[in-house]
């Protein structure tokens, strides 16, 4: 059954102020799991304790590409200790976006080490992996074609696929079976064409169709994320959870 998680980057300012209390509020709102984007100086034991207290599942951790190059074993050990299953490459800096062949080889190395430790490597897209090309195809597709499925799974950010002008439903269908994680988010295009992420149900993305397709494809976690919040981020994630609950009440194999 598909479960609902939160990418904690959404509430980063609150985590900076009070890591433990923020996780308590996330759990109170009904999120079942969290995807970390840093641990805010907490030790393994401190993270273990707040996860035990709240009942939250550590879905995985967004871990920068360069951090994996420099300290892969350290990151693997920390994630194993807190019960996190997925190590996710979240973003590539602009200076890295013209050397796809090297990145693909690094992903193979990261994926092999994750596999050895019983963890799973994923790659999380933005729009640039779909608008930039490598060997005649979108760079994202080249990555998944050249890194074996056994070494790299898909975390599809459906919102950024749509913003890039492509169809998230087609991408879900293409990578079904290799797709444990989907970022479920909404946005509007501002007057200048730039994106602004908003609470679920308040934007232009076909999030109901994406949720339906992800659940049908056997996605393990639909992960709510809002890159920037006009409101207080805790209010924003509450609004999004209210939309999720209304969606779940309409049926579907969704655990909320």
Please characterize this protein's 3D structure.
The protein has 256 residues and is of the alpha/beta class. It has one domain: Divalent-metal-dependent TIM barrel enzymes (TIM Barrel, Alpha-Beta Barrel). It is built from 11 helices and 13 strands. It has helices at 12-17, 19-28, 44-54, 65-81, 100-116, 128-131, 139-146, 158-163, 168-174, 207-216, 233-249, and strands at residues 2-7, 33-36, 57-62, 86-89, 120-124, 133-134, 137-138, 153-157, 181-184, 186-189, 195-198, 221-224, 254-255. The chain has an 8-stranded parallel barrel with strand order 1-2-3-4-5-8-9-12, surrounded by 4 helices. Strand 4, helix 5 (100-116) and strand 5 form a beta-alpha-beta unit. Helix 2 (19-28) packs parallel to helix 3 (44-54), helix 4 (65-81) packs parallel to helix 5 (100-116) and helix 9 (168-174) packs parallel to helix 10 (207-216). The protein starts with a strand and ends with a strand. Pfam families: AP_endonuc_2 (PF01261). One of its GO terms (molecular function) is isomerase activity. Keywords: Isomerase. Residues 23-246 form the Xylose isomerase-like TIM barrel domain. This is Sugar phosphate isomerase/epimerase.
Keywords:
eight-stranded parallel beta barrel, TIM Barrel, two-stranded antiparallel sheet, 256 residues, alpha/beta
Based on CA inertia axes, which overall geometry fits?
globular
Range of strand content: 15-25%
* CATH level-4 homologous superfamily: Divalent-metal-dependent TIM barrel enzymes
CATH topology: TIM Barrel
Oligomer: single chain
User: How far from one another are the termini?
Assistant: 10 Å
Order of helices and strands: EHHEHEHEHEHEEHEHHEEEHEHE
What's the architecture in CATH terms? Alpha-Beta Barrel
In this structure, how is the largest beta sheet organized? 8 strands, parallel, barrel
- The pLDDT mean sits at 97
Q: What's the total number of strands?
A: 13
Low-pLDDT regions: none
| Count of domains | 1
GO molecular function: isomerase activity
Keywords: Isomerase
Organism: Paenibacillus mellifer
Domain Xylose isomerase-like TIM barrel: 23-246
């Amino acid at each position: 059954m598909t479960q609902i998680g939160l990418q904690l980057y959404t509430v980063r300012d609150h985590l900076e102020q009070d890591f433990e209390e923020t996780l308590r509020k996330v759990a109170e709102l009904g999120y079942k799991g969290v995807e970390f984007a840093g641990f805010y100086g907490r030790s393994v034991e401190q993270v273990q304790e707040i996860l035990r207290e709240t009942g939250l599942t550590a879905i995985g951790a967004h871990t920068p590409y360069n951090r994996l190059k420099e300290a892969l074993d350290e990151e693997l050990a920390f994630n194993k200790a807190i019960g996190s299953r997925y190590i996710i490459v979240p973003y590539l800096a602009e200076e890295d976006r013209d050397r796809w062949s090297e990145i693909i080889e690094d992903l193979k190395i990261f994926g092999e080490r994750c596999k050895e430790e019983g963890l799973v490597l994923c790659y999380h897209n933005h729009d640039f992996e779909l608008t930039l090309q490598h060997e005649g195809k979108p760079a994202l597709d080249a990555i998944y074609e050249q890194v074996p499925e056994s070494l790299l799974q898909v975390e599809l950010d459906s919102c950024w696929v749509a913003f890039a002008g492509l169809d998230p439903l087609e991408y879900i269908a293409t990578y079904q079976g290799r797709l444990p994680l989907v970022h479920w988010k909404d946005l509007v295009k501002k007057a200048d064409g730039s994106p602004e992420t908003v609470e679920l149900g308040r934007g232009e993305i076909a999030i109901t169709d994406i949720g339906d397709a992800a659940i049908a494809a056997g996605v393990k976690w639909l992960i709510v994320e809002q890159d920037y919040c006009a409101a207080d981020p805790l209010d924003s994630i509450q609004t999004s959870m209210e939309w999720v609950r209304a969606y779940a009440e309409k049926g579907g194999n969704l655990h909320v």
